[in-house]
Q: What sequence folds into this?
């Protein structure tokens, strides 16, 4: 996918060393541009506590969607009673169409491995995993090549660089449903068990892989770690927002002139992202921020900065970091019920609100688009969403009502057209027009 | 007391030795420590032990938190989301089964928000729960008789047991076997195969066998153990079905019961309202009432409330409770001109004379018109025929299908009556002496459905017609006589509909210790409804006499009575067709002259074969089902006996579930010898899967598929026989609903005549459960099912065991290092490895498989220097 470059002032952390997609990123070439430099320097000289301290000071937050401070997570894992620990890099990019993590792993696998090495070092893990979707074949191959090269170089493996620290990394290919992106599900998948989430707490930092303390980070988070440790926590914390510093990858798609992936600082507004992709190709109607379980934002709300808290307040989600631009040819009701049905089909089926509740929510969506809406359907969907969120087990379940809820929040007139007047303004919901015509 | 308990134990410092580290990492997940701490749950200061979950602390202190997927043997699973609790300072409510309780937590278990979440969960479950608790027949019976139960006893030729089961809910199987309109039969699922079971005739047979035995001196069976005398006295006013039913269960509960009856003999409407040909008085009614007198119930006849005594009198005489069950005896009036003419009679008055065996004066040869469509009008019609009326015309204002006594009208017509539907009287035509000469009727049209669900009749102008007659019998419904309310009964009142005001669940009137039940409370109804009312009132009165809170009874009564409706269910298709065995009866032209019972009862053979037709479509888990219990508690999808809505027996049903939508129909799997699987009842809690995997080690079940179609089932939905099932039954034991049940089965023990065995071994090959095996001496040896279980446990524990997996990865890494020829230090392996692998000499296993560590410097590695094994 095309990399969109902003103006030169935008700092580049994640994709700084990324070659163009075709070239295999060899270790020597990567080392020439600074890869493994921090690892070579720090692994023998610095204590794990110092690493945790530096990451905490940098203010790095997880890029997996929840935005939990990475330093805190590592510290929680490191403070567990002595014993076996694990480190896991989550490269399972669950949302359909999202290619951010895959692009990162293809272009700079060394950054991911180096960041994972630091995470393992910080918490005292001797075994680490990089989990990748098995369809991302290029990413898997390049990660494996990079891993082999690093082991041969002594950067990973037993007695890393003579420091006495052992670290064995394994690249795991996993295939499965959307819910695998959730960290406890991912851990079950590594254990070769059915991909179903576990209740948190206890968090993986306390009880993760095979019930041992485990630190799970998104590959994007890990790729920023070597930069922070190389350039200093202070330099990192000055980039972007004070509450959530650093840069992140976003993927802008849908009705834009130039879809692609961009590295932006946190706090960039959504409207800036749309501009970065060349602006909307048609009349901008809404922007779906956060993938299928994200929220629809109307043009008036596009000043929202890319930051977990702000997005949540507006009913959207950071999620996978995808931004889908919707033009006026699309029907929000149709899109929202499509998303809900997708999420239900992809659910693991463990909990009742997710297995049956999301299905009922999707059925309500179907009723709206097919012209069979009942008068209390909006209220019912709202009540059900609120109860589902309260009873939710995992993040997928908690965010699944987002599309319908944000749709109702910002596009109520369009919903009312479907329910009360029996028409679809965008002309997408065909059966509805037939049903309305038959009624007249 | 609690502050003397030890405080929270400090975390121990890290052990030094590697072996202690290993032990530390392998300590149980939930340490059995004695350290305690204080938490606040529902405003109570409670003591929890370290490592306990919130749920465990709650259960230790008797706080009920509902769960469906929680299995006490295993860590919390978190699938059902029923055990959510609110913890102060947390945005989303955590689930208590997997949340460790921490010191100083402030927990709420029953807030409105939590109840709403749980209720929504239950509603969602019920929206995809294609099953029911009670079979439809039992559900529709006003008294919820265990119909499959007594039919099963019938098939075993055990009428005494069948009667006993029947008497658990209604004390009079023979009476009801003659007079019940059998609402159960309308809902029988045998109808999906051929025809409904003759349920009424079946309990009639069972009851009659007991009556025959009673005539020979045997006592009637008593359904429950009679309790020790309580010393409380109860007065029951009225000896009809409601009063006697009430007296029966109160006597069983150990109370001293006296029944007061207005008439010279007990029976109420059963004796004075139902003719001899339908219910023989001596052979059936009195014989069956004998079962009540046998329990020590006393009867006072010729004593009427208001005439001979008042409520004040009874309570002054020391009765601790009074149950008013006086029924409905005031016939409604037509409200048309000429109603007071000579020849217009109250149907009940007419029947009262007729049932005494006396001919009604001057009835013979007269032309009679009966107005009304209920059982009283039918009895008037058929009795008039038997008394020699020259022409009997029955007129009803609605359609025949809306007639309460529609099943009896055919028999009346056979016997010679004329029936006219959709006509209502406009006036009674009289001659100069104010004697009836005819009745003018007007045709009725059926309009919109009314509150009872039947279409409301509306008069059509200009359709008047006249029927000439000499006598008119009015049978258009009755109301209770409430003139006694004025005298000595303060605190008891009538409702707007002129019924006795009494609660639908606790039956209490406004006056302490006075209860009202039966027709006097709900208006004229069927015998079976009156019986049900009487029994439920008996339970309420018993609770009152024991000093329980009447509001608490409300819950208990609700727990005892209501039933869920059911959705579409997989119809029975594979059953053999075997039509219903109808009772033979006398020819109409013989029976219309006789007061003898005209139906010929079943023989034992007939009763048994009819009972065998029952599909026993009941849920075997009833009484044990957590889902049902919680559904009742949270008021989801269940009938409730709330009096305010829709008449006396109102209910909320699944069809009112907010979330009704697509649901699954799964097929029952009864291929396994001991475990019956009914996936439609599965709520996907995963308990069976977890218990099978973690406790038994067999792993027969797991979650299959994703999304809405997720189901906990066997791999590929195959029969349990194809899984490593060891028939231990733990899955059926842990199932919160009836999805997995132990099959009812008589285990037989087989004897082998070894002198005749030729050791062919065919039995060994054929046994599906490996119960037989060839022994070392080529003799049959009896083997337990232990062996497969142990193997599976070993395998599954290996998978779970972190240390072993860790060792495996270490070995793999060592192999790879050896293959690439890269050096690595001898002390590289972590000291926690088991000695067989860590030390170079290795165990036989490690060496044989080439998994010894490659140690290049030849130092401490012993015999493995220069290991170059490639895989």
A:
């Amino acid at each position: 996918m095309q990399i969109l470059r902003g103006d030169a002032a935008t700092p580049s952390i994640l994709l700084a060393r990324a070659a163009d997609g075709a070239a295999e990123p060899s270790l020597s070439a990567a080392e020439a541009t600074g890869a493994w430099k921090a690892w070579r320097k720090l692994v023998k000289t610095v204590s794990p506590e110092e690493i945790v301290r530096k990451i905490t000071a940098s203010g790095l937050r997880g890029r997996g969607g929840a935005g939990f401070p990475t330093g805190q997570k590592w510290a929680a894992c490191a403070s567990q009673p002595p014993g076996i620990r694990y480190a896991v890099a989550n490269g399972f990019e669950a949302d359909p169409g999202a290619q951010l993590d895959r692009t990162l792993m293809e272009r700079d696998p060394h950054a991911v491995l180096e960041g994972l090495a630091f995470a393992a070092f910080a918490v005292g893990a001797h075994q680490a995993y990089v989990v990748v979707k098995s369809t991302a074949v290029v990413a898997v191959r390049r990660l494996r090549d990079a891993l082999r090269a690093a082991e041969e170089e002594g950067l990973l493996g037993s007695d890393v660089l003579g420091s006495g620290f052992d670290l064995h990394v394994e690249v795991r290919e996993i295939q499965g449903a959307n819910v695998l992106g959730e960290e406890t599900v991912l851990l079950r998948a590594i254990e070769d068990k059915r991909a179903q989430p576990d209740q948190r707490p206890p968090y993986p930092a306390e009880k993760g892989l095979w019930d041992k303390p485990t630190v799970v980070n998104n590959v994007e988070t890990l790729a920023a770690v070597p930069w922070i440790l190389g350039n200093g926590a202070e330099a990192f914390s000055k980039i972007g927002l004070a509450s959530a510093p650093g840069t992140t990858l976003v993927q802008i798609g849908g009705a834009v002139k130039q879809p692609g992936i961009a590295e932006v600082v946190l706090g960039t507004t959504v409207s800036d992202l749309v501009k970065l992709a060349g602006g909307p190709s048609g009349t901008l109607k809404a922007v779906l921020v956060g993938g299928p379980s994200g929220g629809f934002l109307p043009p008036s709300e596009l000043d929202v900065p890319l930051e977990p808290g702000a997005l949540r307040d507006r009913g959207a989600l950071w999620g996978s970091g995808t931004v889908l631009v919707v033009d006026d040819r699309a029907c929000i009701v149709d899109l929202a019920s499509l998303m809900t049905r997708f999420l239900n089909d992809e659910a693991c089926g463990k909990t009742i609100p997710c297995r049956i509740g999301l299905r009922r929510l999707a059925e309500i969506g179907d009723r709206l688009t097919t012209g069979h809406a009942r008068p209390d359907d909006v209220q019912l969907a709202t009540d059900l969403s609120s109860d589902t969120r309260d009873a939710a087990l995992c993040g997928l379940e908690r965010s699944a009502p987002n599309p319908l809820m944000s749709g109702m929040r910002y596009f109520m007139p369009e919903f009312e057209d479907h329910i009360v007047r029996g028409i679809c303004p965008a002309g997408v919901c065909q059966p509805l027009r037939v049903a309305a015509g038959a009624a007249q | 007391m609690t502050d003397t308990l030890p405080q929270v134990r400090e975390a121990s410092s890290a052990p030094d030795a590697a072996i202690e580290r290993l032990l530390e990492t392998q300590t149980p997940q939930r340490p059995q420590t004695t350290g305690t701490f204080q938490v606040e749950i529902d405003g109570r200061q409670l003591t929890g032990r370290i490592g306990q979950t919130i749920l465990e602390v709650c259960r230790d202190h008797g706080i009920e938190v509902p769960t469906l997927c929680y299995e006490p043997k295993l860590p919390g699973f978190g699938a059902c989301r029923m055990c959510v609790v609110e913890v102060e300072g947390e945005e989303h409510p955590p689930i208590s089964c997997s949340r460790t309780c921490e010191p100083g937590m402030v927990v709420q278990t029953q807030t409105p928000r939590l109840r709403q979440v749980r209720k929504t969960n239950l509603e969602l479950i019920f929206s995809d729960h294609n099953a029911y608790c009670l079979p439809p027949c039992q559900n529709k019976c006003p008294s919820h008789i265990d119909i499959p139960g007594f039919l099963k006893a019938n098939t075993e030729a055990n009428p005494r047991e069948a009667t006993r089961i029947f008497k658990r809910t209604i004390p009079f199987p023979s009476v009801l076997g003659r007079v019940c309109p059998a609402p159960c039969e309308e809902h029988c699922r045998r109808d999906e195969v051929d025809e409904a079971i003759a349920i009424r005739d079946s309990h009639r047979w069972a009851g009659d066998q007991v009556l025959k035995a009673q005539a020979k001196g045997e006592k009637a069976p008593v359904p429950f153990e009679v309790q020790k005398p309580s010393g409380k006295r109860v007065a029951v006013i009225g000896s009809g079905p409601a009063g006697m039913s009430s007296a029966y269960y109160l006597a069983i509960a150990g109370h001293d019961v006296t029944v007061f009856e207005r008439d010279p003999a007990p029976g109420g409407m059963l004796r004075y309202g139902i003719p001899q040909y339908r219910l023989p008085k001596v052979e059936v009614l009195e014989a069956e009432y004998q079962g009540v007198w046998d329990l020590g119930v006393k009867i006072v006849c010729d004593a009427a409330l208001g005439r001979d005594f008042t409520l004040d009198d009874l309570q002054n005489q020391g009765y601790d409770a009074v149950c008013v069950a006086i029924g409905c005896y005031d016939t409604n009036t037509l409200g048309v001109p000429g109603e007071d003419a000579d020849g217009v009679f109250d149907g009940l008055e007419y029947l009262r004379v007729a049932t005494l065996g006396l001919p009604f004066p001057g009835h013979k040869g007269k032309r009679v018109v009966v107005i009304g469509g209920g059982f009283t009008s039918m009895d008037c019609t058929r009795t008039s025929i038997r008394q020699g009326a020259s022409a009997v015309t029955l007129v009803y204002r609605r359609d025949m299908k809306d007639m309460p006594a529609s099943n009896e009208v055919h028999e009346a017509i056979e016997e010679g009556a004329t029936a006219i539907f959709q006509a209502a009287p406009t006036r009674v035509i009289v001659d100069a002496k104010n004697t009836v000469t005819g009745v003018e009727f007007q045709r009725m049209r059926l309009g919109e459905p009314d509150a009872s669900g039947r279409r409301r009749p509306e008069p059509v102008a200009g359709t008047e017609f006249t029927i000439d007659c000499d006598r008119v019998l009015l049978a258009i419904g009755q109301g209770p006589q409430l003139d006694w309310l004025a005298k000595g009964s303060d605190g008891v009142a009538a409702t707007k509909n002129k019924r006795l005001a009494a609660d639908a669940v606790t039956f209490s009137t406004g006056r302490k210790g006075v209860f009202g039940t039966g027709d006097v409370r709900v208006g004229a109804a069927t015998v079976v409804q009156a019986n049900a009312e009487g029994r439920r009132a008996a339970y309420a009165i018993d609770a009152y006499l024991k000093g329980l809170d009447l509001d608490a009874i409300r819950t208990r009564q609700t727990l005892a009575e209501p039933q869920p409706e059911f959705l579409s269910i997989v119809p029975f298709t594979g059953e053999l067709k075997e039509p219903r065995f109808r009772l033979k009866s006398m020819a109409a032209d013989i029976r219309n002259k006789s007061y003898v019972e005209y139906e010929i009862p079943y023989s034992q053979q007939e009763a048994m074969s009819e009972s065998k037709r029952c599909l026993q479509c009941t849920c075997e888990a009833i009484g044990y089902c957590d889902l049902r219990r919680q559904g009742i508690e949270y008021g989801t999808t269940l009938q409730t006996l709330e009096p305010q809505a829709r008449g006396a027996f109102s209910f909320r049903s699944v069809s009112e579930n907010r979330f009704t939508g697509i649901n699954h129909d799964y097929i029952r799997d009864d291929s396994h010898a001991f475990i019956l699987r009914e996936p439609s009842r599965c709520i996907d809690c995963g308990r069976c899967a977890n218990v099978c995997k973690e406790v038994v080690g067999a792993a027969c079940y797991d979650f299959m598929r994703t999304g809405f179609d997720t189901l906990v089932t066997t791999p590929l939905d195959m029969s349990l026989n194809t899984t490593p099932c060891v028939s231990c039954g733990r899955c059926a034991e842990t199932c919160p609903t009836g999805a997995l049940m132990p099959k009812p089965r008589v285990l037989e023990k087989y004897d082998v005549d070894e002198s005749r065995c030729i050791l062919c071994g065919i039995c060994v090959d054929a046994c599906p459960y490996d119960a037989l095996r060839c022994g070392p001496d080529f003799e049959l040896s009896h083997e337990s099912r232990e062996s497969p279980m142990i193997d599976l446990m070993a395998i599954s524990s290996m998978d779970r065991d972190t240390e072993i997996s860790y060792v495996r990865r270490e070995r793999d890494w060592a192999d790879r290092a050896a293959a690439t020829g890269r050096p690595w230090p001898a002390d590289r392996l972590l000291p926690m490895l088991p000695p067989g692998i860590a030390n170079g000499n290795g165990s036989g296993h490690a060496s044989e498989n080439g998994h010894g560590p490659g140690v290049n410097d030849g130092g401490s590695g012993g015999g493995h220097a220069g290991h170059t094994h490639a895989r």
Observations:
- DSSP finds 28 helices and 28 strands in chain B.
- Residues 829 and 838 of chain B are 7 Å apart (CA to CA).
- Chain B has six domains: 2-110, 137-222+602-612, 233-329+480-547, 353-477, 669-800, 802-864.
- The longest strand of chain B covers residues 436-449.
